Each structure stands twice: as C-alpha cells, then as structure tokens.
C-alpha cells in the first residue's frame, strides 16, 4: 500500500521515516501550499509533492492518507479521505471538537474504512510486557494509577507554535496534545476505563511569542480520576516543566505488586513487591509476552526508541489496513475516546468539580470548549 503524507513538520518526518523502515512506499506529500509541499518533500527525500491536500487525497496513487497537519485541519481531510475510500492515519487529537471526532469515527465505521491514530507509546516491548503481566494477574487488581507527562518546549514566554492558537490547535493544548497519550497508555496497559475525573487547568504564560499574542489554551493540567474497576489515579500534564523533554511516566500499584515505566528510558521497566524490586530489560529472557518478544528486535543493552516504536506502529497499522486482525491498534474509536476525556477535563475545570465521563460522552454535539 502506498502512503501519502499531509503536513511538513516534526510528525510528518517521523511518519516518513517509520513508513520507509516498515517497507512502505511514499507516493507523495502535500502541505498548506504547493511551495511548502515541494520544500518539505525535498527535505524528506520524497520525490513527489501534491499541490493541495485534496489532490493527494484524490490521487489514485495513494492508498493510505497520513494526516500530520495542524489539528483544526484533521476532520475535513479525514472525512474527504474516508469518502475517497482511503485508509487513514490521523495524528491526535483526532479533531478539534468532540462532534467532529464522533463524525470521523462514525464515518469510518459506516464506510468500512480501517483507521489508526498514533498512540505510539503502546508499541514499546516493555509496555506490552507490563500489559501482559497485569492481564495475567501478576500484581493483582491495579488500585492506584499515577504519573505525569512533562515537556519543556513551551517553558518560556517566547516559545510558541500553532498548537498554542485555539483556532488551529483546538480549545485544549497540553491535555489534547500529550495528556491523551498518558490516558491512552494507562487504559491500554491496565484495561481500566476512566469513568470520573476532576481537573484543574493552568496557563503559565498569558502571552506568548514575539507578538505577545494572548494565549487561550492551557500549559498544565492536574487531573484526579476513578476507573470502572475501582482504581483511583492522578496525573500531572505540563509543557512548561524545565528540563523535562518528553517524560511520560506511569506507576501502576496493584494488590500484590507494582509496575513503573518511563518513556525516556523505554528499554527497561521497574517492578516492585514487598520482597523484591527489579529492573526488567527489553529483549531479556524475562520478557514472556509474545507481543513483547515480537517488538523487542534486539538483545538487552541495544536500545530501541521512539522512532522504532513508530515503525512498529506503522507496520501493525498497515497489516490492519490489509485486513489482518492485529491486536493493540489505536483506531479512530480511541481518538474519539481521547476527545471525550479531553472534553470532560475542560468541563471539570470550568465547573471546578468532578465530571462523570458518561455525561461528557452523551453531549457529543458540543465543541471541546469549556
Ligand atoms: C509535541 O508536544 C509532541 O510532538 C506531541 O504532539 C507528540 O504526540 C508526542 O509524542 C511528542 O510531543
């Protein structure tokens, strides 16, 4: 299957490298203008550029559309791709409003189109091993789910990006961009679903960039939550934590033991019990899950990283598009779930109280605004 990439930023580059490593052809790239498409395509070594996203979506040379453009453009492009019968890989957040996220998930289901959203941290061997161990009961029922997702690329008032602008990025920034990764990952490894939450939003810098434009989106979210299987949790999400580059950490404390994972050191995980604590290395004989063994390409001590996880995602997603039944693929349904949690976070912050996620799910026609 031949890929077409829309966008020319950091994520377009990550997708292009992953596609090549997974052995897939890139038919071309489109961006916001023909000129930008040409320069991004040439920077990424992609031979063909399209004059517009619409031209790429309609091209008979493209089988899978990868949407890596600003968030507000996701929904119209994804709907056009679905209408054209193309499979779609859409960056998160799936859409800037919950109504659009719901329309996309419904359109894909109605048209029988297979989709994927790069919740890519699911594709570390260590994450799959923790998931398998929790499923087989190694730590009993998870009781406490806690952690953080901290970045610092917006830690100064001079730093800015299209994500900061609600018109391009959507009403939530830090949570919709990275908080949803944490929730997806913790729900993925535990099998629990967040049912209620209470969140507080902070905007650290009211103005950003050279033009000191007013910022309408949050830098920080502190969230407490409960799950359908009786666990309690908390997470700190921040894009202004100096020194923390892409530090997604979680701890799962169960009845008889615990697991902890740090995305910046994904080749090992920690497991603890009353008697003994251990560091388990990816690729070691301690990795017993079939999926973890499949994703660990190298022996211990030979690190794999973010880009390898992305390649594994691309590889599995294309098998899924080809009709294979592949476990663990994040689809538009997971993108919609992320939009629902984001919506609940914004509502909770607005009312300064707890929000039942089912209520948020029921009000699907509302935009993601507080
Ligand atoms: C920027 O915050 C970003 O690139 C996110 O958009 C990605 O999803 C995350 O994996 C790394 O940080």
User: In terms of per-residue confidence, which ranges show pLDDT below 50 for 5 or more consecutive residues?
Assistant: 362-370
How many domains? Answer: 2
The shape is globular
CATH evolutionary superfamily of the largest domain: Dihydrodipicolinate Reductase, domain 2
Order of helices and strands: EHEHHEHEHEHEHHEEEEEEEEEHHHEH
Q: Beta-strand level of the residues, as a percent range?
A: 15-25%
- What fold name stands as the CATH topology of the largest domain? Dihydrodipicolinate Reductase, domain 2
Bound ligands, each once: alpha-L-sorbopyranose
CATH architectural arrangement of the largest domain: 2-Layer Sandwich
User: How many strands, what sense, and barrel or not for the largest sheet?
Assistant: 9 strands, mixed
- Separate helix tally: 12
How many strand units?
16
Strand order of the largest sheet: 15-14-13-12-6-11-10-7-16
> In the CATH hierarchy, what is the class of the largest domain?
Alpha Beta
Mean residue pLDDT: 95
Structural class: alpha/beta
Give the termini distance in whole angstroms: 41 Å
Q: Calculate Rg over CA atoms.
A: 20 Å
Helix content: 25-40%
Secondary structure layout:
Layout: E1 2-6, H1 10-21, E2 25-30, H2 34-43, H3 53-58, E3 64-67, H4 74-83, E4 87-90, H5 98-111, E5 115-116, H6 125-135, E6 142-150, H7 166-169, H8 174-190, E7 194-202, E8 207-208, E9 213-214, E10 220-227, E11 232-238, E12 247-254, E13 258-262, E14 268-272, E15 277-281, H9 290-295, H10 306-321, H11 332-351, E16 355-356, H12 357-362
Parallel strand pairs: 1-2, 1-3, 3-4, 4-5, 6-11
Antiparallel strand pairs: 6-12, 7-10, 7-16, 8-9, 10-11, 12-13, 13-14, 14-15
The site of alpha-L-sorbopyranose has 6 residues, from α8.
